[in-house]
């Protein structure tokens, strides 16, 4: 019997083999779980209820309204069921005993996260399928066109996927056992508040979007592209966070974030170039640079406050070739290299914000926005460099890195609050901005237009940032040297040992 | 010459100032069952978790068939099966689904996957409970499923952390049989316990640790020889046991002298029988008034007890 059974593997099994194992497991678990029965019952009930309500009030409804009601029910189900399920699935996935068993297999953390994301996508698909009869029925009642349906379903799916991605990222924080309750609470709060804000926006904006499509398809396309890009980049970031949480502190958890930050910057510039009319580029491009920097600020600070040296695991994976090692160095883990990456990022954003307008629009960047860009970049560089110096004085270890980050926040807070306090006590009141407030990014940026020339904040901040970078320079030099030596060591290892001495030994 | 199956090399690991493992080194051979013995908190679990790539040492390294777990954990993982001290089941998954999932995760496909899953089910005797939920298994059944999962990718090295804990005598015997078969198939097995008796019958070799440090490593025969060289001696003197104690403390091979009562003393002695006879002669010559002089025989259990009191160090 076993012979016969072994000869022919059922098609379903062969198909399942090609899927992500975590997805297959989630589906198996889903079907058996009690939550599934409850959710299914609730969804069917919502379906029936919506159908009854629509039918009862049909005579008073405008054309298209029944579909909107059906869509509302679908979105509510999607944004509640899918992300919450994803959150709890992830919290369970990172339980110490379970995740460790899994990491010993051939599954890499990223594939585990992908499996969870795919499971969320599958649940969106399945739920939408459950609502298909209701949607079809309301469609037959007329008043909606295909564009509205596709758009409505697409937005609903996108929102549910985005929320599920966020839930997975927050759920993965439970890998640190002390954070597990916080991860659950934050995850639920994030899902509910995100759903609460975005759902009405989608439902109310749907009509406008459809009209937009009719009146200006080009602009509409850009808006859609922008949303899609944001979704992709957001999901990517969620994937990176969850993967980092699942990975060992010894693995490379830095490169992905650094590449992602550059992708965000490229997307910001790309979106501006595609969507903004040429005559506004002189303002929009530097603004895009400043926004990209602000978005990347956490990654900048984390990169600069990493432990300085390679872990043995990462050292083994430095590219052996001299050229590649030099190019990849700033993307490799380590605080010194991280700060170098920050400097490269700042230079690129500056080049993009100030260099692209004359190239592409024929006008220089708007000076007011250019100053904002310069200030934002300088703040990023200053605090990253200070973070590197602080981290450099601490012991190795992940805990010290997070302590350094907390200290950095403390320094920024003190740098903002102390001058205010001094003003209030010594000066008799907080009058107006003066250079003593230069460490306060928020107030300085808000006041920027009103600050007198004599107090040129760019100059002051520039000097401070340069000093901080100078203080962190040895660490950057060591970071480069380390990756250089690691590459050389790999080349040495790859070369076959000379025959004679080996034999002699 | 091929690299040893498992090589623990100068391993150290602290947790918040507590030294869990402290400069530990030993090696493991293929086809042997090695008992990894130490009292609670000796660092067995920590050592195994480092070897299984799950924990990072402060110093030192572990190599599996020459592959460093620090540098190439992915390669190392394919060569080891780690059975943690606790089996954590998946909710809402039955035994067969559980094994199929892990087989899938280990990259087994098609007929190979089916055959492997079928063979571990048969080997571990899980055939009757394929439809049972993994959360509803007894301790023994859970351990069997855990072992089955550990064997799926056919690793040459098995690291089993207290697999027998909580099993009834019959399940223990069954586990012993399974381990014997695995060792006969050429696998190296490192099996930890703080109960030596549990392992003394099946283990071919012994690694004894205490407070993260190696106390003794070798074959069981070597361990027994070590026992033979370490005698617990009881001596009775006519009177003045204090003087006898002072004299004993000046003898190089004598340690841990205890005064039991007015006339009885007990001490540890390192050396063969000739050396023991010499000691007795000198005691008599020193005029201690020796009335009786006898060794107490020790078994493996006692080696464990005595060595972990620090006698052998
Ligand atoms: N994650 C941890 N955090 C803090 N201390 C730990 C941790 N893991 C182990 N220890 C400490 O390290 C020492 C060794 O523990 P380990 O679990 O390795 O011992 P063991 O030999 O397996 O003991 P047992 O027989 O009780 O299982 C103990 O003092 C323990 O308290
Ligand atoms: Mg233990």
First-residue to last-residue Cα separation of chain B:
32 Å
Bound molecules: adenosine-5'-triphosphate, magnesium ion
N-to-C SSE series of chain B? EEEHEEHEHHHEHEHEEHEHEEHEH
The average pLDDT score of chain A comes to: 89
Number of domains of chain B: 2
Largest beta sheet: strand ordering of chain B = 6-7-8-3-9-10
SS elements, strand count of chain B: 14
Average pLDDT for all residues of chain B = 86
Shape call of chain B: elongated
- Helix percent of chain B reads 25-40%
The N- to C-terminal Cα distance of chain A equals 56 Å
Notes on the structure:
The complex is a heterodimer of chains A (505) and B (313). Chain A has 20 helices and no strands. Chain A has 505 residues and is mainly alpha-helical. In chain A, α4 (34-56) packs parallel to α7 (109-140), α7 (109-140) runs antiparallel to α10 (217-246) and α15 runs antiparallel to α16 (367-392). With 313 residues, chain B is of the alpha/beta class. Chain B has 2 domains: 6-226, P-loop containing nucleotide triphosphate hydrolases (Rossmann fold), CATH 3.40.50; 229-297, Alpha-Beta Plaits, CATH 3.30.70. Chain B has 11 helices and 14 strands. In chain B, the strands form 3 sheets. A 6-stranded mixed beta sheet of chain B has the order 6-7-8-3-9-10, with helices on both faces. A 4-stranded antiparallel beta sheet of chain B has the order 2-1-4-5, covered by helices on one side. A 4-stranded antiparallel beta sheet of chain B has the order 12-13-11-14. In chain B, α3 (95-105) crosses α4 (110-123). The A-B interface holds A 2, 5-6, 9, 14, 16-17, 21, 24-25, 28-30, 32-33, 92, 95-98, 100-107, 248-250, 311-313, 315-316 and B 52-54, 56, 68, 70-73, 77-78, 80, 82, 84, 86-88, 90-94, 97, 101-102, 104-107, 109-111, 113-115, 118, 133, 149, 153. The complex binds adenosine-5'-triphosphate and magnesium ion. Adenosine-5'-triphosphate binds at residues 15-16, 18, 20, 38, 40-46, 194 of chain B.
């Amino acid at each position: 019997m076993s012979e016969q059974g072994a000869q022919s593997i059922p098609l379903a099994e062969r198909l399942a083999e090609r899927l992500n194992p975590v997805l297959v497991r989630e589906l198996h678990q889903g079907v058996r779980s009690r939550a599934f029965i409850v959710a299914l019952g609730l969804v069917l009930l919502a379906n029936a209820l919506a159908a009854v309500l629509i039918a009862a009030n049909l005579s008073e409804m405008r054309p298209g309204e029944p579909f909107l009601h059906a869509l509302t029910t679908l979105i509510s189900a999607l944004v509640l069921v899918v992300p919450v399920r994803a959150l709890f699935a992830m919290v369970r996935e990172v339980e110490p005993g379970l995740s460790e068993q899994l990491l010993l297999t051939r599954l890499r953390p990223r594939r585990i996260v992908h499996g969870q994301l795919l499971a969320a996508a599958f649940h969106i698909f399945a739920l939408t399928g459950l609502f298909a009869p209701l949607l079809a029925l309301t469609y037959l009642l007329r008043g909606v066109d295909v564009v509205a349906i596709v758009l409505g379903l697409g937005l609903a799916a996108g929102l549910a996927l985005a929320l599920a991605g966020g839930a997975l990222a927050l759920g993965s924080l439970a890998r640190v056992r002390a954070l597990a309750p916080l991860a659950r609470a934050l995850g639920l709060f994030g899902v509910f508040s995100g759903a609460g804000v975005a759902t009405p926006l989608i439902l109310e904006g749907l009509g406008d979007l459809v009209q937009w499509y009719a009146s200006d398809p080009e602009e509409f396309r850009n808006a859609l592209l922008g949303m899609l890009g944001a979704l992709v980049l957001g999901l990517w970031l969620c994937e990176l966070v969850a993967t980092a949480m699942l990975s060992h502190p010894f693995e490379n958890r830095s490169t992905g974030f650094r590449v992602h930050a550059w992708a965000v910057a490229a997307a910001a510039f790309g979106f501006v170039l595609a969507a903004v009319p040429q005559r506004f580029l002189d303002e929009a491009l530097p603004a895009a640079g400043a926004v990209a920097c602000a978005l990347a600020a956490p990654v900048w600070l984390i990169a600069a406050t990493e432990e300085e040296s390679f872990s043995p695991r990462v050292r083994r994976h430095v590219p052996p070739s001299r050229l590649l090692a030099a190019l990849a160095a700033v993307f490799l883990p380590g605080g010194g290299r991280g700060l170098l990456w920050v400097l490269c990022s700042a230079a690129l954003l500056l080049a993009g914000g100030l260099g692209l307008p004359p190239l592409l629009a024929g006008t220089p960047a708007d000076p007011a926005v250019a100053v904002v860009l310069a200030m934002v970049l300088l703040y990023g560089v200053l605090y990253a460099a200070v973070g590197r110096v602080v981290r450099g004085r601490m012991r190795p270890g992940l805990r010290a890195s997070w302590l350094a980050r907390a200290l950095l926040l403390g320094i920024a807070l003190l740098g903002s609050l102390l001058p205010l306090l001094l003003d209030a006590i010594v000066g008799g009141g907080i009058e107006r901005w003066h250079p003593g407030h230069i460490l306060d990014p928020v107030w300085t940026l808000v006041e920027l237009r009103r600050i007198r020339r004599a107090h040129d904040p760019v100059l002051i901040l520039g000097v401070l940032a340069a000093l901080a970078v100078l203080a962190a320079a040895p660490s950057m030099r060591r970071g480069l040297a380390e990756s250089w030596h690691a590459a050389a060591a790999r080349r040495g290892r790859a070369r076959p040992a000379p025959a004679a001495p080996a034999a002699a030994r | 010459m091929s690299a040893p199956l498992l090589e623990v090399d100068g391993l150290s690991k602290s947790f918040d100032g507590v030294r869990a493992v402290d400069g530990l080194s030993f090696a493991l051979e293929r086809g042997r069952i090695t008992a990894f013995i130490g009292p609670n908190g000796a660092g067995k679990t920590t050592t195994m978790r480092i070897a299984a790539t799950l924990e990072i040492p402060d110093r030192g390294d572990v190599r599996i068939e020459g592959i460093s777990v620090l540098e190439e954990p992915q390669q190392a993982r394919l060569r080891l099966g780690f059975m943690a001290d606790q089996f954590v089941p998946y909710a809402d998954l039955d035994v067969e689904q559980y094994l199929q999932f892990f087989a899938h995760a280990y990259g087994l496909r098609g007929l190979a996957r089916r055959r492997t899953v079928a063979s571990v089910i048969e080997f571990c005797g899980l055939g009757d409970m394929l439809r049972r939920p993994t959360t509803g298994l007894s301790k023994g059944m859970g351990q069997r499923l855990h072992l089955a999962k550990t064997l799926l990718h056919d690793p040459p090295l098995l690291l089993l952390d207290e697999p027998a804990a909580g099993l009834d005598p019959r399940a223990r015997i069954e586990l012993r049989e399974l381990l014997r078969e695995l060792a006969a198939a050429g696998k190296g097995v490192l099996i930890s316990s703080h109960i030596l008796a549990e392992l003394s019958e099946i283990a071919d070799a012994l690694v004894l640790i205490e407070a993260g440090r190696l106390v003794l490593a070798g074959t069981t025969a070597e361990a027994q020889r070590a026992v033979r060289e370490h005698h617990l001696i009881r001596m009775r003197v006519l009177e003045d046991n204090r003087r006898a104690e002072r004299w004993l403390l000046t003898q190089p091979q004598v340690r841990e002298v205890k005064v039991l009562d007015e006339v009885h003393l007990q001490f540890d002695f390192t050396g063969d029988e000739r050396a023991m006879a010499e000691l007795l002669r000198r005691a008599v010559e020193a005029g201690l008034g020796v009335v009786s002089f006898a060794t107490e025989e020790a078994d493996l259990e006692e080696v464990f007890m005595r060595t972990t009191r620090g006698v052998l160090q």
